[in-house]
Design goal:
Elements: E1 2-7, H1 11-19, H2 23-26, E2 28-34, H3 37-47, E3 51-55, H4 63-72, E4 78-83, H5 88-96, E5 101-104, H6 109-146, E6 171-176, H7 180-187, E7 194-202, E8 205-211, H8 214-225, E9 233-235, H9 245-261, E10 267-269, H10 277-288, H11 298-311, H12 315-335, H13 349-355, H14 359-399, H15 407-413, H16 418-429, H17 433-451, H18 456-462, H19 468-479, H20 483-490
Parallel strand pairs: 1-2, 1-3, 3-4, 4-5, 9-10
Antiparallel strand pairs: 6-8, 6-9, 7-8
Helix pairs in contact: 10-11, 10-12, 11-14
Length: 492
């Protein structure tokens, strides 16, 4: 809901505006009113409304004057101008100052609705852009903090940063997707927690840094766990040095994501995982990639994960299992000489949390990566089997040149269709099967012509050609000379 300030020196106009629009349904709420230009300026500073609807002619400051102040002082407030006169110069000035628009008194209900909808769209677009800028800037600062730097986070009109991170004080990092105003309201009730920094961490996620003891944090977590709604909140342990900022961020990420998979506690204070389930799940990973298995049983593995994490919810445990899974997966690919693009990258903690918001997401990743292996293994086996058949086919041709060899007979012999065998043979030898047979027969005829005294007619039969005249034509096409000339030219 966006806030609106109404300004006009006529009370009747103010009251009329209040009733001539269904403000809430359009997305606005009236935060205050002003009866003159001076009061309007004061309330602009104190209320900082999203939208100002102001009369052009008012005592103190005119609507044009106020709009110029808004622009020169970089207020984010949008402006709609009101006037009882259709005055071109005023309208032109309003356009020059980039106001939403200009409407005449008495205000028409439909005209007001249209211009409010236009204002809502423009304000929403500006806020979305501002949010993107805040996230971009926040990510830069977080990278600086992870690298052990102590960035100066000064408050200004654009961002929500408050104070420099206190190096000497105990600090805690919290990551939350609870609505920010509600979170801050609850936080302010805890006197022993001092709020320091707030960064928009993602579209629906905030990162907070504040001072407080482990006891006060645990107490605050209990309060948060009693709140209604779908949210997950994670706290790091307490830290005392800026050099520990990266660890604190990782702890908060683990805790916040543990809150997603924990059915009982949506607000979690990080504690290092120390359970025995890792050994059990390690065996499950090893079993998944046992190489003498005929197939992968991902269902058993993912079911084991779900069972363990339902009893011992820990995103840190899931991250450790991810590391072991990637190691075994890559070893499997290397051993079986899979192409290098099958190798999987080990995610950093931040990347892991960004990519896997839940156990369901991680299980889908497991199933997808195993499916890739299965499909490739199947394709590889088919390729291997086909190569073996083509090699057997070549051997058969070489050993049976004098017989009647046809494509259909070969296909029947090796349980292939004629078309499939022809395509496969060409793919693996670079030659059509009929051309290969002819080359082999002509080569055999050349050998007999230069190494025996048998007549050419008999050599034709021994080379697989019962029709001498057909043999004579094929031989000349292949060599450029007749069989008799070849014998005279190349016989020793």
């Amino acid at each position: 809901m966006f806030s609106v300030l109404l300004a006009d020196d006529e009370p009747a106009i103010i009251e009329g505006l209040k009733t001539k629009a269904d403000w809430n349904s359009i997305g606005f709420e009236i935060c205050d009113t002003a009866a003159n230009g001076i009061e309007c300026i004061e309330k602009l500073k104190s209320k900082q409304p999203d939208l100002l609807i102001t009369d052009i002619r008012m005592p103190g400051w005119s609507g044009i004057d106020i709009t110029e102040i808004i622009r020169t002082q970089n207020y984010s407030t949008e402006v709609i101008l009101l006037s009882g006169y259709s005055e071109f110069e005023y309208a032109k000035k309003g356009i020059d100052l980039e106001t939403i628009g200009y409407i005449l008194k008495p205000v028409d209900r439909n005209e007001l609705k249209v211009i409010l909808q236009k204002a809502y769209q423009k304000i929403a677009e500006k806020k979305e852009e501002k949010m993107k800028d805040e996230i971009k800037e926040a990510k830069k600062l977080i990278v600086q903090m992870k690298n052990g730097q102590n960035p100066s986070l000064e408050r200004n009109g654009q961002y929500q940063y408050l104070f420099d991170l206190p190096i000497k004080e105990v600090f805690t990092i919290c990551i939350s997707n609870m609505e920010d105003n509600h979170f801050i309201k609850l936080l302010n009730q805890k006197e022993k927690l001092t709020f320091k920094i707030k960064l928009r961490y993602a579209i629906d996620k905030w990162l907070y840094i504040f001072n407080g003891t482990s006891k006060s944090i645990a107490s605050f977590a209990r309060i948060l766990n009693m709140q209604r709604g779908t949210y997950s909140i994670g706290f790091s342990t307490t830290h005392t040095s800026i050099t520990e900022i990266k660890r604190a961020l990782d702890e908060a990420e683990f805790a916040q994501h543990t809150g997603i998979i924990d059915n009982k506690n949506r607000c979690v204070v990080y504690s290092p995982y120390s359970g025995s389930a890792y050994s059990y799940l390690s065996r499950a990973v090893n079993e998944l990639f046992r190489q003498n298995k005929k197939s992968f049983n991902t269902q058993t593995f993912t079911s084991s994960l779900e069972l363990v994490l339902s009893k011992e919810p820990s995103f840190e445990l899931l991250y450790k299992i991810h590391g072991l899974y990637i190691e075994k997966y890559n070893q499997y690919c290397t051993t079986l000489t899979f192409p290098t693009h099958f190798q999987k990258k080990l995610f950093s903690i931040a990347e892991f949390c960004d990519n896997f918001g839940s156990l369901k997401d991680f299980n889908k990743y497991i199933e997808s990566s195993i499916e890739d292996l299965t499909n490739y293994s199947s394709d590889k086996k088919n390729i291997s089997d086909t190569k073996e058949i083509i090699q057997r086919c070549i051997t058969y041709i070489d050993q049976n040149l004098t017989t009647d060899i046809t494509l259909s007979k070969l296909a029947d012999s090796f349980n292939f269709s004629a078309a499939k065998l022809s395509i496969a043979f060409s793919r693996y030898t670079g030659k059509k099967i009929t051309h290969y047979i002819r080359e082999k027969r002509i080569a055999h005829a050349k050998f007999l012509l230069t190494n025996s005294n048998q007549p050419v007619t008999q050599i034709a039969v021994l080379s697989g050609y019962d029709d001498y005249y057909y043999f004579a034509r094929i031989f000349k096409e292949s060599t450029g000379i007749t069989a008799s000339t070849y014998r005279k030219k190349y016989s020793s």
